[in-house]
Amino acid sequence: MLTAHLVPTLIHQLTALLGWLDKAEAHALAHNNKPDDLLAVRLAVDMFPLGTQLRFAAFLAQEAVYRLRQQEVPPELLALRTRGATRPDEPGTLNDCRGLLGHALAFLKSVGERELDEAADQPLSHALPTGMVFDMTGFTYVRDWALPQVGFHVVMAYALLRSAGVPLGKQDYVPHMFAYLRPGTMPGA
Q1: What average pLDDT does the segment 39-67 reach?
Q2: Parallel, antiparallel, or unpaired for β 133-137 and 123-127?
């Protein structure tokens, strides 16, 4: 069940992010602004900007799979995290971020249906760049680290886009829920 809980949740979150970037670009263009300027938006001066939030979401979603497979995180993926953390004032472009999120989505979609399930009860040590190390099981790693961390950066991206005036709402946050909508129950339908 670990795979069935983790992977679809991450796919939903990253898919929503891609949709928000499309809305953000359309909003910026409609207001004669440069869409790529949105990547520098911050909620506070000591917080990472949108570009970093997107990089971290793409990184963390993939990192979780590597950790649960008990594989080393590839250097190019670690470089994504490092760039986000050390070069926040060089956010790149919306297309760069779409590519990173698209790559992460393709990677997640390649995970086998039950591939990560055996990791649930396995010990997992998770070291942070700060030197802190957390000893967990695969299950507690997913529940207490992977999903909350990706969720945090997704929520930050949402808040940053909303603060920039992008018209996002609940339906943008959980678009996957419309697959479950009972016919005839949509307000205004």
Answers
A1: 96
A2: antiparallel
SS3 134: strand
Domain chopping of the chain, boundaries: 2-178
Secondary element (H or E) of residue 123: strand 123-127
How big is the chain by its Cα radius of gyration, in Å? Answer: 17
Amino acid at 70: Q
Work out whether the CA dihedral 43, 47, 49, 54 comes out positive or negative: negative
CA distance 105 to 99: 10
Per-residue pLDDT reduced to its tens digit, 126-183 = 998 899 999 999 999 999 999 999 999 999 999 999 999 999 998 999 999 999 999 9
C-alpha span between 80 and 82 (Å, rounded):
5
What's the pLDDT score for residue 189? Answer: 63
Cα-to-chain-centroid distance, residue 148: 10
Instruction: Count other Cβ atoms within 10 Å, centred on residue 172.
Output: 17
Q: How far apart are CA 107 and CA 59, in angstroms?
A: 11
Q: How many helices (H) and strands (E) does the chain have?
A: 7, 2
The DSSP element (H or E) to which 135 belongs, if any, is: strand 133-137
Token readout for 54 is 């997107």
User: For 2-178, CATH number?
Assistant: 1.20.120.450
